[in-house]
Amino acid sequence: MRYGEKAIKEATLEAWDNPFPDRDYTVEISYPEFTCICPRSGYPDFATIRITYVPDKKIVELRSLKLYLNSFRDRAISHEGATNTIFDALKELLKPRSLQVIGDFNVRGNVKTIVKVSM
Prior knowledge:
Helix content is 27%, strand content 39%. The protein is an alpha+beta fold. The mean pLDDT is 97.
């Protein structure tokens, strides 16, 4: 197994202490290389995942987030399932003041899908 494959297989989301927990500020993260597998056809789906949150006590460690998002690449999951799974993982880990995850999936079969989950 190559080192990247091993890192993705062992990926877990990590949180760091927020350096400014008494301040409201917004963190915006864009991940334009998201991939997963269509559970019906087996074809790859490509998306940009956009994460916007106002942290409370914790922030997400970006390398762990990258590896976590890469772990979906061989996973058979719907657009809705992927977006909601990412949202749930970040919500549980960070307990942010607010959170939005957008799965902006590329056109496939002449259909464009954007899934938004927020609190």
